[in-house]
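LOG
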Amino acid sequence: MRLAVHAITHQGCPVEIRERLMLDQQQRRSLLRSCHAQRAISEACILQTCNRLEFYLVTGEQFDQRAFLQSQLQDLRNEGDLWARHARSMEGSDAARHLLMVATGLDSQLIGENQILAQVKAAYCEAVAAHTTKLILNRLFHLAFRAGKDVRANTTISRGAVSIAQAAVEVAARSMDLTKARALVIGAGENAHLVASALVKKGLAELVIANRDQERAVALCSQLGLGKAIGLEQISRQLRRADLVISSTGSSDLVITEQLAGPILAARRRPILMIDLAVPRDIDPVLGKIKTVMIKNIDDLDQHINASRSKRADQIPKAKAIVDQYLQQFQDWRNGLSAVPLVCALMETAMSTARLHASRYAKGFCQEDRQALVAFAESLAKKLLHGPISFARRIGQEPSADQIAAAELLRQIFDLHG
Protein backbone atom coordinates (compact mmCIF):
# COMPACT_ATOMS: atom_id res chain seq x y z
CA MET A 1 0.00 0.00 0.00
CA ARG A 2 1.20 3.50 -0.86
CA LEU A 3 1.19 6.25 1.79
CA ALA A 4 1.41 9.84 0.50
CA VAL A 5 0.56 13.41 1.45
CA HIS A 6 -0.32 16.12 -1.05
CA ALA A 7 0.04 19.55 0.53
CA ILE A 8 -0.59 23.23 -0.08
CA THR A 9 1.06 25.22 2.72
CA HIS A 10 2.21 28.71 3.67
CA GLN A 11 5.67 27.68 2.51
CA GLY A 12 5.76 28.82 -1.10
CA CYS A 13 2.02 29.22 -1.52
CA PRO A 14 0.64 32.70 -0.69
CA VAL A 15 -2.72 33.40 0.89
CA GLU A 16 -4.10 34.51 -2.51
CA ILE A 17 -3.71 30.90 -3.68
CA ARG A 18 -4.57 29.10 -0.44
CA GLU A 19 -7.89 30.86 -0.03
CA ARG A 20 -9.09 29.68 -3.45
CA LEU A 21 -8.54 26.05 -2.44
CA MET A 22 -9.97 26.02 1.08
CA LEU A 23 -12.85 23.61 1.70
CA ASP A 24 -15.74 24.15 4.07
CA GLN A 25 -16.83 21.31 6.35
CA GLN A 26 -19.48 20.06 3.94
CA GLN A 27 -16.95 19.94 1.09
CA ARG A 28 -14.41 18.08 3.22
CA ARG A 29 -17.03 15.52 4.18
CA SER A 30 -18.03 15.15 0.54
CA LEU A 31 -14.43 14.52 -0.48
CA LEU A 32 -13.98 11.95 2.29
CA ARG A 33 -17.14 10.19 1.11
CA SER A 34 -15.66 10.07 -2.39
CA CYS A 35 -12.49 8.54 -0.96
CA HIS A 36 -14.54 5.96 0.94
CA ALA A 37 -16.40 5.04 -2.25
CA GLN A 38 -13.20 4.67 -4.29
CA ARG A 39 -12.07 1.04 -4.01
CA ALA A 40 -8.42 1.87 -4.67
CA ILE A 41 -8.31 4.22 -1.66
CA SER A 42 -7.90 2.37 1.61
CA GLU A 43 -7.51 5.40 3.91
CA ALA A 44 -7.82 9.18 3.74
CA CYS A 45 -7.58 12.23 6.01
CA ILE A 46 -7.84 15.96 5.24
CA LEU A 47 -5.92 18.46 7.39
CA GLN A 48 -6.95 22.08 6.80
CA THR A 49 -5.87 25.19 8.72
CA CYS A 50 -5.42 28.80 7.67
CA ASN A 51 -1.91 27.89 6.51
CA ARG A 52 -2.34 24.44 4.96
CA LEU A 53 -4.57 22.08 3.03
CA GLU A 54 -3.16 18.54 3.16
CA PHE A 55 -4.53 15.22 1.92
CA TYR A 56 -3.14 12.04 3.49
CA LEU A 57 -3.94 8.96 1.40
CA VAL A 58 -3.22 5.25 1.55
CA THR A 59 -3.93 3.58 -1.79
CA GLY A 60 -2.87 0.83 -4.15
CA GLU A 61 0.50 1.37 -5.78
CA GLN A 62 -0.90 2.02 -9.25
CA PHE A 63 -3.64 4.46 -8.23
CA ASP A 64 -3.07 8.04 -9.47
CA GLN A 65 -3.63 10.00 -6.28
CA ARG A 66 -2.91 13.43 -7.74
CA ALA A 67 -5.29 12.94 -10.66
CA PHE A 68 -8.03 11.86 -8.25
CA LEU A 69 -7.53 14.89 -6.00
CA GLN A 70 -7.29 17.27 -8.95
CA SER A 71 -10.64 15.96 -10.23
CA GLN A 72 -12.24 16.29 -6.80
CA LEU A 73 -11.04 19.87 -6.32
CA GLN A 74 -12.22 20.73 -9.80
CA ASP A 75 -15.69 19.47 -8.87
CA LEU A 76 -15.76 21.09 -5.43
CA ARG A 77 -13.96 24.38 -6.03
CA ASN A 78 -13.45 24.59 -9.80
CA GLU A 79 -9.73 24.92 -8.99
CA GLY A 80 -8.29 21.53 -9.91
CA ASP A 81 -5.61 22.97 -12.19
CA LEU A 82 -4.58 25.57 -9.61
CA TRP A 83 -4.17 22.84 -7.01
CA ALA A 84 -2.14 20.69 -9.38
CA ARG A 85 0.29 23.57 -10.06
CA HIS A 86 0.98 24.28 -6.40
CA ALA A 87 0.52 21.00 -4.48
CA ARG A 88 3.67 19.35 -3.16
CA SER A 89 3.63 15.55 -2.84
CA MET A 90 5.60 13.31 -0.46
CA GLU A 91 5.47 9.52 -0.17
CA GLY A 92 6.35 6.83 2.34
CA SER A 93 8.66 7.91 5.14
CA ASP A 94 8.75 11.48 3.78
CA ALA A 95 4.96 11.70 4.15
CA ALA A 96 5.16 10.27 7.67
CA ARG A 97 7.92 12.70 8.63
CA HIS A 98 5.86 15.60 7.29
CA LEU A 99 2.91 14.80 9.57
CA LEU A 100 5.23 14.45 12.56
CA MET A 101 6.80 17.83 11.75
CA VAL A 102 3.35 19.39 11.45
CA ALA A 103 2.05 17.92 14.74
CA THR A 104 5.14 19.04 16.66
CA GLY A 105 4.83 22.61 15.37
CA LEU A 106 8.11 22.42 13.44
CA ASP A 107 6.41 23.03 10.10
CA SER A 108 4.25 25.90 11.35
CA GLN A 109 4.49 29.52 10.33
CA LEU A 110 5.06 30.07 14.06
CA ILE A 111 7.59 27.42 15.12
CA GLY A 112 6.39 25.66 18.26
CA GLU A 113 2.85 27.06 18.22
CA ASN A 114 0.35 25.00 20.21
CA GLN A 115 -2.86 25.26 18.15
CA ILE A 116 -1.70 22.89 15.40
CA LEU A 117 -1.77 19.72 17.54
CA ALA A 118 -5.46 20.25 18.32
CA GLN A 119 -6.09 20.93 14.62
CA VAL A 120 -4.37 17.66 13.63
CA LYS A 121 -6.53 15.81 16.18
CA ALA A 122 -9.68 17.46 14.82
CA ALA A 123 -8.77 16.43 11.26
CA TYR A 124 -8.19 12.85 12.38
CA CYS A 125 -11.53 12.76 14.24
CA GLU A 126 -13.28 14.03 11.11
CA ALA A 127 -11.71 11.18 9.10
CA VAL A 128 -12.60 8.61 11.77
CA ALA A 129 -16.22 9.80 11.65
CA ALA A 130 -16.15 9.32 7.87
CA HIS A 131 -14.72 5.79 8.30
CA THR A 132 -11.68 6.63 6.16
CA THR A 133 -8.92 5.72 8.61
CA LYS A 134 -7.67 2.20 9.19
CA LEU A 135 -4.46 0.57 10.26
CA ILE A 136 -1.78 2.80 8.71
CA LEU A 137 -3.24 6.27 9.33
CA ASN A 138 -4.44 5.21 12.78
CA ARG A 139 -0.90 4.23 13.72
CA LEU A 140 0.71 7.27 12.07
CA PHE A 141 -1.64 9.86 13.55
CA HIS A 142 -1.43 8.42 17.05
CA LEU A 143 2.36 8.50 16.82
CA ALA A 144 2.05 12.14 15.67
CA PHE A 145 -0.06 12.96 18.74
CA ARG A 146 2.56 11.39 21.00
CA ALA A 147 5.40 13.16 19.18
CA GLY A 148 3.61 16.50 19.56
CA LYS A 149 3.24 16.00 23.31
CA ASP A 150 6.81 14.71 23.65
CA VAL A 151 8.35 17.73 21.89
CA ARG A 152 6.35 20.16 24.01
CA ALA A 153 7.20 18.31 27.22
CA ASN A 154 10.91 17.72 26.58
CA THR A 155 11.97 20.91 24.80
CA THR A 156 11.27 24.58 25.38
CA ILE A 157 10.30 25.18 21.76
CA SER A 158 6.76 26.20 22.74
CA ARG A 159 7.84 28.37 25.65
CA GLY A 160 7.08 31.98 24.82
CA ALA A 161 5.84 31.00 21.37
CA VAL A 162 3.48 33.58 19.94
CA SER A 163 0.28 32.61 18.21
CA ILE A 164 -0.92 34.19 14.98
CA ALA A 165 -3.34 36.17 17.12
CA GLN A 166 -0.59 37.44 19.41
CA ALA A 167 1.58 38.35 16.43
CA ALA A 168 -1.28 40.43 15.03
CA VAL A 169 -1.70 42.30 18.32
CA GLU A 170 2.04 42.96 18.53
CA VAL A 171 1.97 44.43 15.02
CA ALA A 172 -0.94 46.64 16.07
CA ALA A 173 0.88 47.74 19.24
CA ARG A 174 3.82 48.93 17.14
CA SER A 175 1.49 51.03 15.00
CA MET A 176 -0.56 52.75 17.72
CA ASP A 177 -1.02 53.30 21.43
CA LEU A 178 -3.56 50.60 22.25
CA THR A 179 -4.39 52.24 25.59
CA LYS A 180 -6.02 55.03 23.56
CA ALA A 181 -7.34 52.95 20.68
CA ARG A 182 -10.74 51.58 19.64
CA ALA A 183 -10.58 48.05 18.23
CA LEU A 184 -13.12 46.03 16.29
CA VAL A 185 -12.60 42.25 16.44
CA ILE A 186 -14.64 40.27 13.94
CA GLY A 187 -15.34 36.65 14.83
CA ALA A 188 -15.82 34.75 18.07
CA GLY A 189 -13.85 31.56 17.43
CA GLU A 190 -10.53 30.52 18.95
CA ASN A 191 -8.37 32.99 17.01
CA ALA A 192 -10.73 35.90 17.68
CA HIS A 193 -10.80 34.95 21.35
CA LEU A 194 -6.99 34.98 21.49
CA VAL A 195 -6.90 38.34 19.71
CA ALA A 196 -9.40 39.92 22.08
CA SER A 197 -7.61 38.53 25.15
CA ALA A 198 -4.24 39.85 23.95
CA LEU A 199 -5.74 43.29 23.28
CA VAL A 200 -7.24 43.42 26.77
CA LYS A 201 -3.87 42.48 28.29
CA LYS A 202 -2.30 45.37 26.36
CA GLY A 203 -4.72 47.77 28.05
CA LEU A 204 -6.96 48.44 25.04
CA ALA A 205 -9.20 51.46 25.61
CA GLU A 206 -12.34 50.26 23.78
CA LEU A 207 -13.34 46.89 22.31
CA VAL A 208 -16.18 45.87 20.03
CA ILE A 209 -16.68 42.22 19.02
CA ALA A 210 -18.77 41.46 15.96
CA ASN A 211 -20.04 38.00 15.07
CA ARG A 212 -22.72 36.45 12.90
CA ASP A 213 -24.11 34.79 16.04
CA GLN A 214 -24.26 37.81 18.34
CA GLU A 215 -24.79 35.64 21.43
CA ARG A 216 -21.31 34.19 21.01
CA ALA A 217 -19.89 37.72 20.89
CA VAL A 218 -21.88 38.56 24.07
CA ALA A 219 -20.41 35.49 25.80
CA LEU A 220 -16.87 36.45 24.80
CA CYS A 221 -17.29 40.03 26.06
CA SER A 222 -18.64 38.68 29.34
CA GLN A 223 -15.68 36.33 29.69
CA LEU A 224 -13.21 39.16 29.03
CA GLY A 225 -15.02 41.62 31.26
CA LEU A 226 -14.77 44.23 28.53
CA GLY A 227 -16.32 45.08 25.20
CA LYS A 228 -19.54 45.57 23.32
CA ALA A 229 -21.08 42.77 21.22
CA ILE A 230 -22.70 43.43 17.85
CA GLY A 231 -23.93 41.50 14.83
CA LEU A 232 -22.15 41.61 11.48
CA GLU A 233 -24.81 43.94 10.07
CA GLN A 234 -23.58 46.67 12.43
CA ILE A 235 -19.95 46.61 11.28
CA SER A 236 -20.22 49.60 8.95
CA ARG A 237 -21.09 51.93 11.81
CA GLN A 238 -18.04 50.77 13.77
CA LEU A 239 -15.70 51.36 10.83
CA ARG A 240 -16.27 55.09 11.22
CA ARG A 241 -14.79 55.06 14.75
CA ALA A 242 -12.33 52.15 14.93
CA ASP A 243 -8.55 52.61 14.88
CA LEU A 244 -7.92 48.90 14.52
CA VAL A 245 -9.81 46.02 12.91
CA ILE A 246 -8.69 42.40 13.34
CA SER A 247 -10.82 39.83 11.56
CA SER A 248 -10.77 36.05 11.87
CA THR A 249 -13.97 34.31 10.79
CA GLY A 250 -14.68 31.05 9.03
CA SER A 251 -16.67 32.72 6.29
CA SER A 252 -16.15 31.56 2.72
CA ASP A 253 -17.07 35.05 1.48
CA LEU A 254 -15.71 38.52 2.17
CA VAL A 255 -17.08 40.03 5.38
CA ILE A 256 -15.88 43.59 4.73
CA THR A 257 -16.46 44.31 1.06
CA GLU A 258 -15.61 47.37 -1.02
CA GLN A 259 -19.32 48.09 -1.39
CA LEU A 260 -19.90 47.96 2.36
CA ALA A 261 -16.82 49.77 3.59
CA GLY A 262 -15.35 51.72 0.66
CA PRO A 263 -17.32 54.98 1.04
CA ILE A 264 -17.01 54.92 4.85
CA LEU A 265 -13.26 54.37 4.87
CA ALA A 266 -12.68 56.90 2.08
CA ALA A 267 -14.39 59.57 4.18
CA ARG A 268 -12.12 58.97 7.20
CA ARG A 269 -9.36 61.36 8.11
CA ARG A 270 -7.72 59.20 10.76
CA PRO A 271 -5.70 56.15 9.70
CA ILE A 272 -7.05 52.67 10.33
CA LEU A 273 -5.10 49.41 10.51
CA MET A 274 -6.96 46.32 9.31
CA ILE A 275 -5.41 42.89 9.99
CA ASP A 276 -7.00 39.94 8.22
CA LEU A 277 -6.17 36.57 9.80
CA ALA A 278 -8.76 34.59 7.86
CA VAL A 279 -8.20 32.19 4.96
CA PRO A 280 -10.20 32.76 2.79
CA ARG A 281 -9.77 36.44 3.57
CA ASP A 282 -12.48 38.47 5.32
CA ILE A 283 -11.40 41.93 4.14
CA ASP A 284 -11.41 42.96 0.49
CA PRO A 285 -7.75 43.78 -0.33
CA VAL A 286 -8.97 46.52 -2.72
CA LEU A 287 -9.73 48.64 0.36
CA GLY A 288 -5.97 48.93 0.95
CA LYS A 289 -5.84 51.43 -1.94
CA ILE A 290 -7.61 54.02 0.23
CA LYS A 291 -5.09 56.52 1.59
CA THR A 292 -6.01 56.16 5.28
CA VAL A 293 -6.27 52.35 5.21
CA MET A 294 -3.47 49.87 5.84
CA ILE A 295 -4.33 46.18 5.39
CA LYS A 296 -2.16 43.28 6.52
CA ASN A 297 -2.97 39.61 5.90
CA ILE A 298 -1.69 36.50 7.63
CA ASP A 299 1.38 36.27 5.36
CA ASP A 300 2.36 39.85 6.20
CA LEU A 301 3.01 38.82 9.81
CA ASP A 302 6.15 36.88 8.83
CA GLN A 303 8.58 39.63 9.85
CA HIS A 304 7.35 39.60 13.44
CA ILE A 305 7.10 35.81 13.39
CA ASN A 306 10.72 35.43 12.21
CA ALA A 307 11.92 37.42 15.22
CA SER A 308 9.98 35.06 17.49
CA ARG A 309 11.38 32.01 15.67
CA SER A 310 14.99 33.06 16.25
CA LYS A 311 14.44 32.97 20.03
CA ARG A 312 13.73 29.23 19.90
CA ALA A 313 16.09 28.20 17.10
CA ASP A 314 18.38 26.31 19.51
CA GLN A 315 15.51 23.94 20.38
CA ILE A 316 14.81 22.90 16.78
CA PRO A 317 17.56 20.21 16.54
CA LYS A 318 16.36 18.61 19.78
CA ALA A 319 12.76 18.62 18.55
CA LYS A 320 13.79 17.13 15.20
CA ALA A 321 15.64 14.36 17.01
CA ILE A 322 12.37 13.44 18.75
CA VAL A 323 10.61 13.45 15.37
CA ASP A 324 13.29 11.08 14.05
CA GLN A 325 12.64 8.67 16.93
CA TYR A 326 8.91 8.50 16.19
CA LEU A 327 9.56 8.19 12.46
CA GLN A 328 11.82 5.21 13.16
CA GLN A 329 9.06 3.63 15.25
CA PHE A 330 6.64 4.01 12.35
CA GLN A 331 9.12 2.64 9.80
CA ASP A 332 9.99 -0.34 12.01
CA TRP A 333 6.29 -1.09 12.45
CA ARG A 334 5.58 -0.89 8.71
CA ASN A 335 8.60 -3.00 7.85
CA GLY A 336 7.47 -5.58 10.38
CA LEU A 337 4.22 -6.05 8.50
CA SER A 338 5.98 -7.52 5.46
CA ALA A 339 6.45 -11.26 5.02
CA VAL A 340 10.10 -11.92 5.90
CA PRO A 341 10.26 -10.03 9.24
CA LEU A 342 6.86 -11.43 10.25
CA VAL A 343 7.83 -15.04 9.51
CA CYS A 344 11.15 -14.60 11.32
CA ALA A 345 9.47 -13.03 14.34
CA LEU A 346 6.87 -15.81 14.50
CA MET A 347 9.50 -18.53 14.26
CA GLU A 348 11.85 -16.91 16.75
CA THR A 349 9.09 -16.40 19.31
CA ALA A 350 7.74 -19.93 18.87
CA MET A 351 11.15 -21.64 19.03
CA SER A 352 12.40 -19.69 22.04
CA THR A 353 9.14 -20.40 23.91
CA ALA A 354 9.25 -24.11 23.00
CA ARG A 355 12.91 -24.47 24.12
CA LEU A 356 12.30 -22.56 27.34
CA HIS A 357 9.38 -24.71 28.47
CA ALA A 358 10.94 -27.98 27.27
CA SER A 359 14.10 -27.24 29.25
CA ARG A 360 12.05 -26.35 32.33
CA TYR A 361 10.25 -29.72 32.32
CA ALA A 362 13.31 -31.77 31.36
CA LYS A 363 15.45 -31.01 34.40
CA GLY A 364 15.33 -34.61 35.68
CA PHE A 365 15.81 -36.16 32.27
CA CYS A 366 18.98 -37.62 30.85
CA GLN A 367 20.74 -35.73 28.06
CA GLU A 368 19.20 -37.86 25.30
CA ASP A 369 15.64 -37.53 26.64
CA ARG A 370 16.13 -33.81 27.20
CA GLN A 371 17.11 -33.32 23.56
CA ALA A 372 14.17 -35.41 22.44
CA LEU A 373 11.75 -33.29 24.47
CA VAL A 374 13.19 -30.06 23.03
CA ALA A 375 12.91 -31.47 19.50
CA PHE A 376 9.30 -32.52 20.16
CA ALA A 377 8.42 -29.05 21.53
CA GLU A 378 9.98 -27.35 18.51
CA SER A 379 8.15 -29.69 16.12
CA LEU A 380 4.83 -29.05 17.88
CA ALA A 381 5.37 -25.27 17.73
CA LYS A 382 6.11 -25.45 14.00
CA LYS A 383 2.98 -27.55 13.44
CA LEU A 384 0.79 -25.05 15.34
CA LEU A 385 2.31 -22.12 13.40
CA HIS A 386 1.98 -23.76 9.98
CA GLY A 387 -1.23 -21.84 9.13
CA PRO A 388 -0.09 -18.37 10.32
CA ILE A 389 3.33 -18.75 8.64
CA SER A 390 1.78 -19.94 5.39
CA PHE A 391 -0.41 -16.84 5.41
CA ALA A 392 2.53 -14.56 6.25
CA ARG A 393 4.54 -15.94 3.35
CA ARG A 394 1.75 -15.00 0.93
CA ILE A 395 2.16 -11.32 1.82
CA GLY A 396 3.97 -9.79 -1.13
CA GLN A 397 5.88 -6.58 -1.65
CA GLU A 398 2.58 -4.75 -2.28
CA PRO A 399 0.21 -6.16 0.39
CA SER A 400 -3.47 -5.27 0.33
CA ALA A 401 -5.11 -3.36 3.16
CA ASP A 402 -6.68 -6.62 4.42
CA GLN A 403 -3.31 -8.39 4.40
CA ILE A 404 -1.70 -5.54 6.31
CA ALA A 405 -4.49 -5.62 8.89
CA ALA A 406 -4.18 -9.40 9.23
CA ALA A 407 -0.40 -9.16 9.64
CA GLU A 408 -0.85 -6.61 12.40
CA LEU A 409 -3.39 -8.88 14.08
CA LEU A 410 -0.88 -11.74 14.02
CA ARG A 411 1.69 -9.49 15.65
CA GLN A 412 -0.77 -8.58 18.39
CA ILE A 413 -1.91 -12.17 18.98
CA PHE A 414 1.66 -13.46 19.30
CA ASP A 415 2.93 -10.29 21.08
CA LEU A 416 5.58 -9.60 18.43
CA HIS A 417 5.90 -5.84 19.05
CA GLY A 418 8.38 -6.30 21.86
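LOG (cont.) second protein
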Amino acid sequence: MVWRSLFLVASLIVSTLFLPLNATAIPAPHRICTRAPGSQVTVRTGPGTSHAPGLVMVGSGGKKVDDFFRRNNYTIADGEQVSVFSSARGTDGQTWKKVGTNQWVAWVRGDFVC
Protein backbone atom coordinates (compact mmCIF):
# COMPACT_ATOMS: atom_id res chain seq x y z
CA MET A 1 0.00 0.00 0.00
CA VAL A 2 2.84 2.39 0.88
CA TRP A 3 4.63 1.53 -2.38
CA ARG A 4 1.49 2.28 -4.35
CA SER A 5 1.15 5.71 -2.71
CA LEU A 6 4.82 6.48 -3.34
CA PHE A 7 4.45 5.43 -6.97
CA LEU A 8 1.45 7.74 -7.45
CA VAL A 9 3.26 10.70 -5.88
CA ALA A 10 6.37 10.06 -7.98
CA SER A 11 4.26 9.80 -11.14
CA LEU A 12 2.62 13.12 -10.37
CA ILE A 13 5.96 14.84 -9.79
CA VAL A 14 7.50 13.45 -12.97
CA SER A 15 4.46 14.33 -15.09
CA THR A 16 4.46 17.96 -13.88
CA LEU A 17 8.17 18.32 -14.74
CA PHE A 18 7.40 17.71 -18.39
CA LEU A 19 4.45 20.09 -18.78
CA PRO A 20 5.16 23.06 -21.05
CA LEU A 21 5.66 26.34 -19.19
CA ASN A 22 2.74 27.95 -21.03
CA ALA A 23 0.28 25.13 -20.24
CA THR A 24 -3.05 26.39 -18.97
CA ALA A 25 -5.69 24.54 -17.03
CA ILE A 26 -8.98 23.75 -18.72
CA PRO A 27 -11.67 25.70 -16.88
CA ALA A 28 -14.18 23.65 -14.96
CA PRO A 29 -17.71 23.81 -16.30
CA HIS A 30 -20.09 26.17 -14.61
CA ARG A 31 -23.80 25.76 -14.21
CA ILE A 32 -26.90 27.90 -14.07
CA CYS A 33 -28.01 28.43 -10.47
CA THR A 34 -31.39 29.97 -9.84
CA ARG A 35 -32.90 30.84 -6.51
CA ALA A 36 -35.70 28.35 -7.03
CA PRO A 37 -34.79 24.83 -8.19
CA GLY A 38 -36.59 23.94 -11.40
CA SER A 39 -36.86 27.54 -12.57
CA GLN A 40 -35.22 29.14 -15.59
CA VAL A 41 -33.09 32.18 -16.47
CA THR A 42 -33.45 34.32 -19.58
CA VAL A 43 -30.42 34.47 -21.89
CA ARG A 44 -29.80 37.80 -23.62
CA THR A 45 -27.99 39.16 -26.66
CA GLY A 46 -25.89 41.51 -24.54
CA PRO A 47 -24.94 42.30 -20.95
CA GLY A 48 -27.97 43.92 -19.33
CA THR A 49 -31.73 43.79 -19.20
CA SER A 50 -31.97 46.40 -21.96
CA HIS A 51 -30.72 43.75 -24.41
CA ALA A 52 -33.28 41.51 -26.05
CA PRO A 53 -33.69 37.87 -25.05
CA GLY A 54 -31.81 35.74 -27.56
CA LEU A 55 -28.52 34.22 -28.58
CA VAL A 56 -25.41 36.13 -29.63
CA MET A 57 -24.25 33.41 -32.00
CA VAL A 58 -24.79 29.78 -32.74
CA GLY A 59 -22.46 27.15 -34.16
CA SER A 60 -23.30 23.84 -35.78
CA GLY A 61 -27.01 23.31 -36.22
CA GLY A 62 -27.59 27.03 -35.69
CA LYS A 63 -31.21 27.21 -36.80
CA LYS A 64 -32.23 24.20 -34.69
CA VAL A 65 -30.48 25.64 -31.63
CA ASP A 66 -32.09 29.06 -32.10
CA ASP A 67 -35.51 27.47 -32.69
CA PHE A 68 -35.15 25.47 -29.45
CA PHE A 69 -34.33 28.58 -27.43
CA ARG A 70 -37.10 30.58 -29.13
CA ARG A 71 -39.68 27.89 -28.24
CA ASN A 72 -38.46 28.15 -24.63
CA ASN A 73 -38.61 31.97 -24.61
CA TYR A 74 -34.81 32.13 -24.64
CA THR A 75 -34.43 30.61 -21.19
CA ILE A 76 -32.02 28.08 -19.74
CA ALA A 77 -32.94 25.72 -16.91
CA ASP A 78 -31.47 25.64 -13.42
CA GLY A 79 -28.54 23.21 -13.27
CA GLU A 80 -27.61 23.33 -16.97
CA GLN A 81 -23.85 23.23 -17.57
CA VAL A 82 -22.27 26.13 -19.46
CA SER A 83 -18.83 27.53 -20.13
CA VAL A 84 -18.05 31.11 -19.12
CA PHE A 85 -16.19 33.04 -21.81
CA SER A 86 -16.07 36.55 -20.33
CA SER A 87 -17.83 38.99 -18.05
CA ALA A 88 -18.88 42.63 -18.36
CA ARG A 89 -20.72 45.33 -16.45
CA GLY A 90 -24.23 45.47 -17.87
CA THR A 91 -26.40 48.43 -18.81
CA ASP A 92 -28.24 47.78 -15.53
CA GLY A 93 -25.04 48.03 -13.43
CA GLN A 94 -24.94 44.28 -12.74
CA THR A 95 -22.12 41.87 -13.67
CA TRP A 96 -23.09 39.67 -16.62
CA LYS A 97 -21.39 36.52 -17.90
CA LYS A 98 -21.04 35.55 -21.53
CA VAL A 99 -21.89 31.86 -21.33
CA GLY A 100 -22.58 29.04 -23.72
CA THR A 101 -21.49 25.79 -25.30
CA ASN A 102 -19.89 24.88 -28.60
CA GLN A 103 -23.29 25.53 -30.21
CA TRP A 104 -24.45 28.84 -28.73
CA VAL A 105 -23.34 31.93 -26.78
CA ALA A 106 -25.49 34.40 -24.83
CA TRP A 107 -25.40 36.61 -21.72
CA VAL A 108 -26.70 35.71 -18.24
CA ARG A 109 -26.58 37.83 -15.11
CA GLY A 110 -23.52 36.81 -13.10
CA ASP A 111 -25.32 35.85 -9.91
CA PHE A 112 -27.11 33.07 -11.83
CA VAL A 113 -23.83 31.35 -12.75
CA CYS A 114 -21.98 29.17 -10.25
